[in-house]
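ok so for the tutorial part 2 we go from a plain amino acid sequence to predicted structure tokens. step 1 is just haveing the sequence, like this:
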Amino acid sequence: MRSALIIVVIVFASMIGGCGYNTLQATDEQIKASWAEVLNQYKRRADLIPNLINTVKGFAAQEKEVLLGVTNARARVGGIQATPELVNDPEAFAKFQNAQGQLSGALSRLLAVAENYPELKSNANFRDLQAQLEGTENRIAVARNRYIKAVQEYNTEVRSFPVNLTAMLFGYQTKPSFTVENEQEISAAPKVDFGAPVPAEN
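step 2 — the prediction. this is what the tokens look like for a chain of 202 residues:
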């Protein structure tokens, strides 16, 4: 009886492996790892903002609207629970992406304002924060790219026969990915440019 049970388990395991279950597991874990890195880099950026705002305020306190815009955008990002489960909810993922996009826009406006304040631009603390922010934006671009590729591989598996049958059986569904208006933004990390014009408000 024991031998028969072992044989059944082995046969079942072989069938599962042959139907893509292990691949689904592996690609799902890759998404989780990639997503964690995206969150780490976004958190790193958020952590830089208070010092950046205080530094700018010391030289350009009159730019209240721009400073408030960054503060509010950061608060909206912080108000979203970016758990691993978020990648399974397209609506929540879109909300998260939109909030991060608004923060990116607010930061761009803040940095563009610095062009009008030579003393601020030459301040050592501001230059250091600017360099850290630029480096973080590069890391965000890399992390997002890895996540996009991981989701693409996973979603391809979920939709492909016969793995799609296994996916339906075990409740695996396609996951949302980042979207951009210009696909080149995926491979080209954003740069902090003091000479860039201030983006128009939507």
